[in-house]
Amino acid sequence: MDINAVLSQIDSEIQNVNSSEALEEFRLKYLGRKGIIAELTSAIPSLPKEERACFGQQVNSLKNKLLSSISEKQETLSVKANEAPVSFDIGMPGIAQELGHLHPLTRITEEICSIFSKMGFSVVDGPEIETEYNNFTGLNIPLEHPSREAFDTFYLKDYSKMLLRSHTSPVQVRVMKEKKPPLAIVVPGRVYRPDAVDASHSFMFHQVEGFMVDKGIKFSDLKGLLEIFAKAIFGNDIKMRFRPHFFPFTEPSAEVDISCIICKGKGCSACGKKGWLEILGSGMIHPNVFKQVGIDPNKYTGFAFGMGVDRIAMLKYGINDIRLFFENDLRFLRQF
Amino acid sequence: MKVTYNWLKDFVDIKIPARELADKLTMAGLEVVSLEEKAGDFVFEIEITSNRPDWLSILGVAREVATLTNSKLKNLDLKIKTKSAKGNLKIEIEDKADCPFYSARIIKNLKVAPSPEWIKNRLELVGCRSVNNVVDITNYVLFELGQPLHAFDLDKLNPEKIIVRRAKSGEKISTIDGTESILSKDVLVVADKEKVSAVAGVMGGKDTEVSFASKNILLEAALFNPIIIRRSRQAIGKASESSYRFERGIDLDMVTRASLRAAQLLEEYCGAEEVSFALSGLNKSKETKIDLDIAYASKILGINLAIAKVRQILIGLGFKIKQKSRNILSIGVPSFRQDVKQAVDLVEEAARVFGFERISNSVPSVKPDVAPNMQRSLVSDIKNMLVGLGLSEAITYSLIDKPGLRNSGFEFGVNPVSIMNPLSQEQEVLRPTLMLGLGRAVSFNLNQKQEFVSLFEIANIFKAGTEPKEELSLGIALSGVKSFFTGAGLAKDEANLLNIKGIFETIFKRLGIAGYEFTGQAANFADICVQKEKIGSMLCLGQQALNSLGIKNKDVFIGELSLDKLFSFVQLNKKFAPLPKYPGITRDISFILKDGVSVKEILILLREKGEPFLREVKVADYYKGKQIPSGWRGLTLSCLYASGERTLTEKEIQPAHDLLCASLTQQFEVKLR
N or C, which terminus of chain A has less Cβ within 10 Å? Predict the structure, then answer.
C-alpha cells in the first residue's frame, strides 16, 4: 500500500467531515481495530528486514498526522456546535414517546371516586356475578313485584339464582353484612340489564354507588354532600334539585337533577326541554335493608346514592351515542 | 299516566295555571314529563312510581293536588235510581288468595251506542280509544277512580254461576285483541260453568265482548292478587290498563264504589236498569295504624318539623290522625295506601309535601378509613404505566357470542358461563378471555386505516365451574407499524411478540414481581409464568383467528394475564441498597449465535460463571443482516465487573472475562467476533 496515496486521501477526506459522527467514522476507518493503520502495521512483519524500520516510521508519522488532524477537526466541530447550526428549526415536531389514553369511562369513574375519597369515603369493589338475594331481596325488592321491572336482569344458565348484577347496590348488602358502622363507601362497577342497544341504551354500563351509615346521619347530610359532589364535577354554576321518587331500598327517596349544562336550564334537546338533567338516585337507607344486613335501624341511619357513569361521561364530554364507549375507535379514545 | 286539567277539576278547585301545577306535582314526586294544551284542556303526562298505584287515577292525583294547593277534595255523589234485588247469580272463588273479592252487577235493557262526546274526548285525551258507551264507561271509571272493571255480554254467558279459578293446562281463550292464547295453571281466569270468559284482570274474551248488539251485561268489579295477575300477564304476553293497576295493587274499598259509579253512568247514558248485585269475599279492608314520632321524623330529615304541619299534610293525603302524646301521632292508613307500612313511609310523605327544597343542606362528619384498596391502586398504577407506554384503554363487552369464540380459537378449553335469557346470540356467554374483544377492537381500528394499534383492557373474565368464577385480567393487543421521530428523522418499528413481552416486563419490574419468565418452544406463543405458576400467555394470532376477525395482511399480537394471580406476587416494599463505592469496568462480548440458541440460557450461564465480580450482564445489541450468515444472529453482551471492596484492575478482570468467553464457546453454538 502506498503511504503517500493514503496521506493525500486523508487530507481530502478530513475536509469533508462535518459532524462528530462522520469524524468517528473517519477515525474508525483509519485507527480502528481493523482500520488501515492496523492493516499497515500488521503488514510490517511480512516485509523484507531492511524495509521494516523505514516503513514502520512512515506508518508512525501517518498515525501522528491522523491523530493531529482528528483533534484539530474535533475543535472546529465543537466550535460549530456552539454556534447553533442554521439547520435547526424549533418549529419541527418535538420528539418524545407518545402517550396512550385512558378510556373516558375510567377517567370519569376516577374523578367521581376521587371527589368522594377526598370527603373521606373508601372505594370498594364487588363481583359482577351476584346472587338474587344480594341484587334484590336484601335490598327490599320483592321478587314478583312491579318495582323489579326497572331492574330487568340477566340470569345465569346452569347456576340457580345467580345473575349479572343489574346495579351496584348489592355491594351495599355485602359491605354492611361484613363491616360495622361507621361506613362511608363508594363502589364503582360494571352492571348489566337486558336492554336493546341504541344511542342511549346498552346492556352493559357503569355505575358508582355510594353510602354512608352512622348514628345520626340525616337527609340534609345527603343533600349537602351531593351538592358538593355535583358542583365538583359539573362546576359551581349549576343549580340542583331533589325530586321525591321511589326506590325500594331507600325511604325517603329522591332523584337529583342539575340544571342542564348545555342550555343552562333554558330547555334544549339534551334535557328534553325540561331545563333539568337527572344525574342521581338517592335516599335514606330503608330500615328493611338494615334489618336484612343485621344493622339496628333504631340505632343507625344512613343514606345511599347511585349514578350512571356512562351518562355523566356523555354529559360532560358531549358524547351523543353510548355505543362509542364500546367501539374502542382510537380516533375516539385519543380525544381523552 | 295521563290526566287532564279539567278532569282534575271535577275533584278539586284548582286556582293555579297548568304549568305551575305541573312544577308542583314534579317536586312532590309525580314527575310531569310533558304538558300539552289540547282541545281546550291541558294534558299532563305523569311518571308514576311503582309504589303509588293510588296515583294511577284522576282521583288519586286530585287528592295530591288538593294537598299541595291547600284545597279540599270533592266527593262524588254516588247513587242509582233503580233498586236492585238480590239475584240468584252465584259467584264461586276457587282460591281467595288469588281473588280476595269479586262483585258482579247484572244490568239489563241498555242501549249500546257511541259514547257522548265528553266521554269520548276525555278518554282520548288520556290515550284511550273509544269503543262504545258501555266499554267506554268501564274505562272512564278505571281512569277516574283507578279501579279496573269489565263488562261481559250477559246473554253470551251461562248466567248461573261465575267462577274465578286457575286455567286448566291447555285451555284456550280468544281475547278481545283478536288473538288466541293457550293457558296454563299460572293464569287466573273468569269462567262460567262451560268456558273461560276472561283472563282475570288482564283481558276479556272475544266471545263475551260487549257489542252494539248487546242488551244485557254483567259488570265485574274485583280485587285480584297482584302476583297472579303479573304471572297471567307474563304467561299470555299481553298487558292492559287493568293488569297494570292490578299488578301494582288496587284499593279494596274502591271496588264496590267504582262499580256503583259505573252503574250510575250506565243508567244515565245507556238507559240501563240494574237487576241484581252479587258479591263474594272480603269487601272491607282492615285499617293499619302506625305511630309517628315527630322527633324521629325531624332527626331523619335534619329539620325541625312542626307537628301541626305534619298533621295538615297527612290529613290532606287521606290519613286519619289521633294525637297520642305531645310528640307522637297515631296514624290510620287509608286502604288506598298499601305502600305505607312503617313510620319512615310517613316521614317521606311529610317531607315530600313539605318540600325537599325546604330542607337545608348539612355536611356529615366522616370517620376516615385510610386502609388502601390495594387492588384498585394496583390497577390504576398499571393503567397509568400502559398509557405511558403508548397504549390506549379499551372497554369491550363482557357478553359475547359462542361462534366468535370458537372460530377465532380463543376457547382454550375453557367452559364459558352461559346466560339464561340473552337478548341475542351475540351476547349468549360471559367472556372467558379478553382476547376476542381486543382482537375485534384491533380489527375495527385497522379498518379505519390506523397504521398502528396498541390497546389494553383490564376487566373480569368468567369461567364455569362448580361456582362461576370471575377473574380480573389484563389484555394487551398490538398490530401494525409504529412511526416515531428520532433526531435523524422518521423511524418505523413493526410490532412483534417482544413488544408484548417488554410491556409485561415493565409492569412486573415496577410491581416488584420476582421470578417471572416467558417460556415457550413455538415461535408464536409463550406462557407467562411467575415463580413457576402460569399466569397468562401471549401469542401472534394465527391465520384462523385473523380470518375470523376479518384482518388481512397484518400480524396481531395479543397477551393476556390474570391480575388476580399476578397481584399475589406483588412486592412493593422497597429497600434501599447502598450505592457502589468503587467504579466498575464494562466489557462487551460480541458474537454470533445459531438460531435456536436461547439468550436466556446464555445469560444464566454467564451469571453463574461470572462470580464473584460480574455484577450485571445484559444484551447491549442484536442484529441480523448481510454480515451475519443466515441462520445466525449477531449479539453483543455488556458485562459489568465491580467489587464492593476496591477498584478492580484490568488484570483482575481479564481472566474472569476470558473465562466467560471460553464458557460461552464451549457450551453454546456461538462464534466470537
Answer: N
Superfamily of domain B90-281: Phenylalanyl-trna Synthetase, Chain B, domain 3 (3.50.40.10)
Among B226, B344, B468, beta carbon nearest to A129: B468
pLDDT digits (tens, 9 = 90+) for B277-330: 888 888 677 889 999 999 999 999 999 999 999 999 999 999 999 999 999 999
Q: Mutation test of the interface with chain A: which of B392, B417, B481, choosing the one with the most A Cβ atoms within 10 A?
A: B392
Mean pLDDT of B238-256: 95
Instruction: Identify the pLDDT of residue B673.
Output: 83
- Grid look-up 259488570 returns B219
Q: Note whether B418 contacts A: Cβ–Cβ < 8 A.
A: yes
Give the alpha-carbon dihedral of B549, A324, A101, B387, to 10 degrees. Answer: -40
The domain B585-672: what is its CATH number?
Answer: 3.30.70.380
- Residue B480: what are its φ and ψ, rounded to 5°? 100, -165
Determine what percent of chain B is predicted with pLDDT higher than 70.
99
Q: What is the mean pLDDT of residues B91-98?
A: 94
With bands split at pLDDT 50, 70 and 90, how would you rate the model's confidence at B473?
Answer: very high
Residues of A whose CB is below 8 A from B388? 97, 99-100
- Give A251's contacts in chain B (Cβ within 8 Å): 344-345, 347-348
| Best to test chain B binding among A112, A212, A251 (most B CBs inside 10 Å) | A251
- Residue ranges of the domains in chain A? 3-82, 104-333
Q: Which residue of A has its CA nearest to B353?
A: A244
Taking the C-alpha atoms of residue B68 and residue B317, their distance in angstroms, rounded to an integer, is 9
The answer for B 537-566 residues in CB contact with A (under 8 A) is none
Could you tell me which of B512, B522, B517 has the C-alpha nearest to residue B533? B517
* CATH 3.50.40.10 domain residues, chain B: 90-281
Chain A residues whose CB is inside 8 A of the B368 CB are 120
Task: Give the pLDDT score at A85.
Answer: 57
The yes-or-no verdict on residue A84 having pLDDT over 60 is no
The CATH number of domain B2-68, selected from 3.20.20.70, 3.30.56.10, 3.40.50.300, 3.40.50.150: 3.30.56.10
Whether residue B359 and residue A251 make contact (CB cut-off 8 A), yes or no, is no
Burial of B242 (0-12, 13-18, 19+ CB in 10 A): buried
Domain A104-333 has CATH 3.40.50.2300: no
Helix A49-82, helix A36-43: angle, nearest 10: 170
pTM across the whole model? 0.86
Residue pointed to by grid coordinates 313539605: B354
Encode pLDDT of A259-271 as tens digits. Answer: 998 888 888 888 8
ipTM of the complex: 0.90
Is the CB of residue A322 less than 8 Å from the CB of residue A310? yes
Residue B628 has pLDDT above 90, yes or no: no
B109 exposure class (CB count in 10 Å sphere: 0-12, 13-18, 19+): exposed
Cβ contact A328–B444 (<8 Å):
yes
Structure confidence at residue B84 as a pLDDT band (50, 70, 90): low
Q: Which of B301, B258, B290, B238 is nearest to B101 (CA)?
A: B258
B428 CA to chain A: closest CA distance, Å? 10
Contact B364 A301 (CB under 8 A): no
Cα dist. B53→A253, B250, B252, B336 in Å?
17, 7, 12, 8
Q: From A123, which residue of chain B is nearest by alpha-carbon distance?
A: B373
Fold topology of B374-567: BirA Bifunctional Protein; domain 2 (3.30.930)
Q: Which residues are CB-contacts of B63 (< 8 A; sequence separation ≥ 6)? A: B11, B12, B54, B73, B316, B317, B318
Residue type, B174: S
CA B187 to chain centre: 29
